[in-house]
Structures are given as structure tokens and as C-alpha cells.
């Protein structure tokens, strides 16, 4: 009996909570670079690339929401050895600043894909700040800045660098 009541209560709470959930996709342009602590051991030019992903926007009130995402992002620097492609998962807290403007902050974890045994760590931790402008009911444009908290190189490598990234893109809410 307890299991049945718990199941009913859980389903009812999900139903009530899910009325303020929207799903969407976003994509755009990346401008990324590596922030070395010392002089880089190779040429360190920025890398221009792309990102794409999906999200859910869980509104707690008219001015505050939780937005978990998953995205692919090609980052790092221009040199092939410094290309870093990630599957990332930021979890945003977004705040409404005006009718069409929202600000968000998020911790982000990234899993490196595509390369193995390249002297780079497989996980990256970073912080993200975002500004989003609502164009229409379902279309928005956003700009984000990401700064890496962790060194991208393996512990046995004597170099230390953090990933930085600017994303400019558009999104669509269903």
C-alpha cells in the first residue's frame, strides 16, 4: 500500500511540475583559445568552430529557472594537437532581467571525445556566464563566456593551460 501511495504521489508531483518545462535546441559559433600560465610551447591561435545541443528549461517562477543542457562543442586552440572536442553538460540558473532578456550562470563538466592518449585530460570543469535575448515566443539568441577551472593537460605534462570560449548562437524552444 505504501508503494502504491508513493507512486501516485510521485506521478502527481511530476505532472504538476512538468507544466512549466520547455525543451529546445541551440547551435552556433565558437571562438576558443587556451590560457597558458607560462609562455606556450607552441603557437596558440584561437580556434573558430561550432557547437550544438539540447536543453530543458524548468521554470520555478516567471523570473527564475533551472536549465540543464547537453551539447557538443569544438574548442581548444587552432593547432591540431590542441584541438579539444567535448560533450558538455552545463546546469544553468537563469534570471529574468527584463521582458526579453535573461542572465544565466552555470557550472559545467565536459568529457573529451575524439582523441585518446594525447596528453590532455579527459574531463574538464568550467564556469559559464550567459546573456539570452528572446526574439519571439520560441526563438532566442544568446552569447556565452566559458572559463575553464581545470588544467587541460595531464598531470605528468609540465605545461598548464585553461580553456576559454565564447559562444554566439541561436536557439529554439518547442
Automatic annotation (TrEMBL):
Domain named Outer membrane protein beta-barrel: residues: 17-154
UniProt xrefs under InterPro entries: Beta-barrel_OMP_2, OMP/PagP_B-barrel
Protein's organism: Aestuariibaculum marinum
Domain of life: Bacteria
Protein name in UniProt: PorT family protein
